[in-house]
Amino acid sequence: MELDAKDDGVENSIVVGAEVDISSAYDCAVCLQPCNQPVKLPCGHVFCYLCVKGATQQSKRCAMCRQEIPVNFLDNPQLVAETLSTVAFEDKYQWFYEGRNGWWQYDDRTSLEIEAAYKKGDTECEVLIAGFLYVIDFQRNLQTRRCDPHRKRHIKRDLVTIPKKGIAGIRQPADTVVTTTDPDSCSSSSDEE
Ligand SMILES: [Zn+2]
Ligand SMILES: [Zn+2]
């Protein structure tokens, strides 16, 4: 089945097979890699969105200057440039995890790690997301937090063009958000959307 990437106004969010080079301009002081979905804190320091998320669950301070991170920062992060561009695998697939009313796409780095394990035929793999280790179970299509196995989410490998909430907790621009209203998508007990 061929999908035309120009449909549905999603063409801006897809760069098939391309490097996302906006982010390589910044190295993240937390993970020491080029920033993945870089966001700028009020103090001006730039980190990966997920690294800031990890920090807010721990010290709640900037890793560089220790300035406090506003409590609502993650809901409305200041993105550095258009960071929602994303890679898709050669067959236009990506990895997604279940959120409250729809699916979040994994950030590119995590998605590539999961894909690599999947392609190798592994039954599971571990990924580090926002400071927590998660086990990806390919047989049950579940993501489980290593140190807190009650935190489970469904995952799936699907076309990058499916309706989604956003990428790794950063919402899509409003005009492209399509929410499903599945009443019993109950990953409820989770505080992280
Ligand atoms: Zn980082
Ligand atoms: Zn700072």
UniProtKB/TrEMBL annotation:
Name where it mostly resides. cytoplasm
Ranges for domain WWE come to 79-157
The UniProt record lists the RING-type domain at 28-66
Q: Where is this region: Disordered?
A: 172-193
| Keyword Ribosomal protein annotated | no
Per the record's keyword annotation, is Cytoplasm included, yes or no? yes
CDD domains for the chain: RING-HC_RNF146
Q: Please outline how this chain is modified post-translation.
A: Ubiquitinated; autoubiquitinated.
Main EC class the enzyme belongs to: transferase
Task: Name the residues that span the membrane.
Answer: none
Q: Which GO terms describe its cellular component?
A: cytosol; nucleus
Instruction: Name where it's found.
Output: Cytoplasm, Cytosol
Q: Name one GO molecular function term.
A: zinc ion binding
Please name the pathway.
Answer: Protein modification; protein ubiquitination
| EC number(s) given by UniProt | 2.3.2.27
UniProt keywords (A-Z) are: Cytoplasm, Metal-binding, Transferase, Ubl conjugation pathway, Wnt signaling pathway, Zinc, Zinc-finger
Question: Where is this chain compositionally biased, Low complexity type?
Answer: 175-193
Biological role? E3 ubiquitin-protein ligase that specifically binds poly-ADP-ribosylated proteins and mediates their ubiquitination and subsequent degradation.
The Swiss-Prot or TrEMBL note on domains reads: The WWE domain mediates non-covalent poly(ADP-ribose)-binding.
What's the protein name? E3 ubiquitin-protein ligase
**Organism of origin:** Oedothorax gibbosus
Q: What is the lineage of its organism?
A: Eukaryota, Metazoa, Ecdysozoa, Arthropoda, Chelicerata
